[in-house]
Structure formats: C-alpha cells, structure tokens
Amino acid sequence: MKAPKTQEIYAPKDVAIPARLGGGVLKERVIRELPSKKVVSYALAYINPLIFSGDNGRVLGYDNSHGYSHRHYKGVITPEPFTSYESLYDRFEQEWQALAIKFVNGEEI
Could you report the per-residue pLDDT of 47-69, keeping only the tens digit for each? Predict the structure, then answer.
C-alpha cells in the first residue's frame, strides 16, 4: 500500500513574455501541505536580463527561502509580510506587468 502524499508541488512551465510586451520569463513554484493545502514554500520570479543583468536576470521575485518571506527587486532583498499566496500572486502580477510596460515605453525602472 502506498503512503498518502503529504505535499503537492505546483510548478508550471515557464511563461515567455513576447518582446512587444517587454520580454522576459515568468517562473512559479508552490509547495502545499496535504490535505490542508497550506502553502509551505513558494517562489515567483520575473526574469529579464534586458532590464537587470544581476541576480541571474531576476528583476522581481517573491519567495520564502532562507526561512522568511521576502521580495527581490533588481538585486535588493527586503522582508515582506505573507498574508496569502493568492494576494501575493496578484501583487506580483501587477508589479511585473507595470515594470514590463515601463520598459517597453523606455521609462526608467
């Protein structure tokens, strides 16, 4: 008999952003406890070396590695409170899209 799974990993394929929309790649990985579905680990990243070449091209990211929730922005790491994965994902989506639009428009990021 197989032991029940204690975690589920959600890691969809990377999403390539078309150049006309700023270019780059979006990465996502989430690990949830089962059966509660509580998020125990997460990482979101917007990679675009044309905007920022440091940190392996990570312009923006959120994760909870190193034991705490934090934000990466162009090589700078700041602690970030974690309320829910859904709200964090929404914030990430709004932020990377705003950065990509500024880049496309030639604005300072």
Answer: 999 999 999 999 999 999 989 99
**Contact predicate 39/30, CB 8 Å:** yes
Could you tell me the pTM of the whole model? 0.92
List the chain domain ranges: 7-103
Task: Give the other-Cβ count within 10 Å of 46's Cβ.
Answer: 28
- Long-range CB pairs of 51-60 (<8 Å, 24+ gap) are 51/22, 51/24, 51/99, 51/103, 51/109, 57/24, 59/24, 59/96, 59/99, 59/109, 60/92, 60/95, 60/96, 60/99
For residue 7 the two structure tokens come to 């975690």
pLDDT digits (tens, 9 = 90+) for 25-40: 999 999 999 999 999 9
Burial class for 4, CB neighbours closer than 10 Å (0-12, 13-18, 19+): exposed
Q: Rounded to an integer, what distance in angstroms lies between the CA atom of residue 57 and that of residue 15?
A: 15
